[in-house]
């Protein structure tokens, strides 16, 4: 139910918000760009986020097929390479990320997975 609500209502609305952080992956089947609203934090040349549904998230499946991504931060797109970090303590990581998004991820998340994006610029 949460996934359907996010996919059909929340995500389309959030994609339109200029300040919203976005992750663009390449669709593993279609080869087309797929844009997902995310919440995370840039630390140096790395961007950190936590996926609430782990391997069941479509963007995680896309990253597994092609880990080259783009991240929109403050209205500017950055290219990078995403790394899935199942050994990372995702709950501890959430304490280092923005509180609002982290609270939602913890509330609805069923299979937390840390993602680090090494930014090219």
UniProtKB/TrEMBL annotation:
It holds the Pfam family F420H2_quin_red. Signal peptide: none annotated. One of its GO terms (molecular function) is oxidoreductase activity. This is Nitroreductase. It comes from Nocardia ninae NBRC 108245.
């Amino acid at each position: 139910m949460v996934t359907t609500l996010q996919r059909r209502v929340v995500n389309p609305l959030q994609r339109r918000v200029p300040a919203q952080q976005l992750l663009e992956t390449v669709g593993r089947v279609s080869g087309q760009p797929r844009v997902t609203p995310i919440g995370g934090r840039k630390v140096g040349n790395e961007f950190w986020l936590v996926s609430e549904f782990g391997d069941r998230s479509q963007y995680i499946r896309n990253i597994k097929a092609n880990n080259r991504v783009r991240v929109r931060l403050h209205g500017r797109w950055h290219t990078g390479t995403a790394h899935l970090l199942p050994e990372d303590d995702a709950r501890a990581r959430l304490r280092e990320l923005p509180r609002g998004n982290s609270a939602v991820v913890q509330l609805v998340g069923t299979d937390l997975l840390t993602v680090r994006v090494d930014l090219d610029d």
